[in-house]
Fold Probable butyrate kinase.
Amino acid sequence: MTDVYRILTINPGSTSTKIAIFDNEKPVLEETIRHSTEEISKYEKIYDQYEFRKNVILETLNDKGINLTKLNAVVGRGGLLKPIPGGTYSVNEKMIEDLKVGVLGEHASNLGGIIANEIASQLNIPAFIVDPVVVDEMDDIARISGMPELERKSIFHALNQKAVARRAAKELGKAYEDVNLIVAHLGGGVSVGAHKNGRVVDVNNALDGEGPFSPERSGGLPVGDLAKMCFSGEYTLKDIKKKIKGNGGLVAYLGTNDGREVVKMIENGDEKAELIYKAMAYQVSKEIGSLSAVLKGKVDGIILTGGIAYDKMFTGWVKERVEFIAPIMIYPGEDEMIALAEGGLRVLRGEEKAKEYK
Ligand SMILES: Nc1ncnc2c1ncn2[C@@H]1O[C@H](COP(=O)(O)OP(=O)(O)OP(=O)(O)O)[C@@H](O)[C@H]1O
Ligand SMILES: CCCC(=O)O
């Protein structure tokens, strides 16, 4: 009987691949392998990066003297699969197929399950993914957009949102299933979710033009004007998509996706930077307010997380607008690596059965 489970976790992001080794919940290795634009931009599709990313992971583990045969499981961040409820999933053939083709689109995390599976199958141990970006627990009422051809989709920072929500529930002395929380993940993308008794019943699609604008995404837009722009003949579909995701938000207004740069601009007296950064906080606050209506005002806590939650000026602006709703809890950064390990551990310990992706 194994007391200590050793788990390798893999989290591929747009500019880095994070890996970690955990002995149960204890991290024994945490590495962020950065990828330069030159390294990444030569690959047309996310799947084309597979060999490159797998090799840098294996080289890093080798350099750190990690004996792979001691691993009990490999857990990857799941990608743009078909919509599924939250939880831990065994990697299977169907999942690999969908991740390879990018059944719902291209995202670096599509490689998480594929690489986890490759490493695990060589070692004859299980491979899992946990709470991928397509976790979909939305209420049916939240799917209605106002245009029957377009259904709202749940695509968000599910892994970190669920992890910090569980942490907050614990701090409130309750089970996640017994609380109502609003979680705002403030990263390169921004997602704000209503967690009602353990289910994310409404959340903005953080990848595709919904919710607040973010460091590099436009968020929701005035649609009539957007439609005119699309048919003006000045832009291709690719141009417009890039304006929504990649070159939107802070990048479009201020030329940077780095919140720390914006803070410096404001400290140097840049009034435009202050207006735009404040507008981002204003939109995040409005989104939180709208989700308080989703939860009928019964909100146990509002959680601010992600990289921008390190910035006290930004969280202060949000706090002053929404603290009348519920207590504010700030968890800067993300808990993604430990969340991956914990998802694997719950299954290895028999506390939860791994779900099957169909
Ligand atoms: N102290 C800080 N002050 C202001 N902004 C910060 C600070 N630390 C990090 N950030 C900003 O947080 C953002 C990145 O957040 P995070 O690392 O959560 O995003 P990501 O992992 O790249 O993307 P995503 O969370 O959307 O997957 C960047 O704009 C970064 O500059
Ligand atoms: C949508 C969640 C992940 C991201 O922002 O890239």
